[in-house]
Every structure is written in structure tokens, then in C-alpha cells.
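Slide 14.
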Amino acid sequence: MTDLASLRESIAKALGGAVVGEVMARGELTFEVQASAIREVMTHLRDVGEFKILVDVCGVDWPQRAKRFDVVYHLLSMTKNARVRIKAQVGEGESIATIADIYPTAGWFERETFDMYGVPFAQHADMRRILTDYGFSGYPLRKDFPLTGYVELRYDDELK
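Slide 15: predicted structure.
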């Protein structure tokens, strides 16, 4: 198993100004990075850091913050037997660059994050909803999403 402390130092040193913060807690390594540098960070982690597997991309809503959303990436290195979490803050109405060409599995995860939180991924080849119904309004995992007042819609094959 890789020593997380040395891994933390090497990644932080290599990424320089792109890293805003880092935390190692409960045996997990997390980096906060600038959203504008996400492609650089993910390319470095894949090619140099040997984190070849993107496990997940998800969102977190912090409505009280100026940059309301965290886009969170979970990576795995089989050769180092290590996991790392990357977080980037994105404001409402802002977008973050897609990494689907760096990690092909990111395509559907990014669509899910867009569908549930409304965070768009710039240059994504197919940025449309993936889980909610056609014509759905709103983003269900935002903390300000109303819990009542929405009518369930079902797709009608005759009306299309």
C-alpha cells in the first residue's frame, strides 16, 4: 500500500497553484483544486499519478456559500493501491470543463451531476438530462428544491 503522506506531498508539489487545499482524514486523501485547472489536474493524476480509474463524479450543494456547488471526483490507482478525492467549487450559473475525453466514464457521471444539481460541463458532447423525465423542471438534489407541488409525469408513447 502506498504511503498517503508521501503521495500527498508529491501530488501537491506537482500541481502547484492548481491545489487550493488538501486534507488527509480517516485514511482518505482529498485535494481542493481550482475549477479552471480541473483538466490539468485530472490529466496529471491519470498520466503521472497512475490514477487510471475514475470511480465517480458527483455534486454537493452548499447553498450558503458564494460558490454553491462542489464537483467531486473519486479516483483509484490499482498500481499504488490508493484512492484520492478531488473537489472543485463551482458557482451557480458557472460551468466546469468536461473530463470525458480524459476519463471516458465521466460522460454519464457528468450528465447525472447536471441533471441533479444543474452544474453544466463545458464542451461535453451530450449535456442533457439522464435521470429525470422529459420536460422536468428543476434540480432535485439541490437543497432548495421543493418537496411538494410537482406532478408526476409519465411518457406517453402515442403523444411522444
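Speaker note: The CA atoms of residues 35 and 120 lie 12 Å apart.
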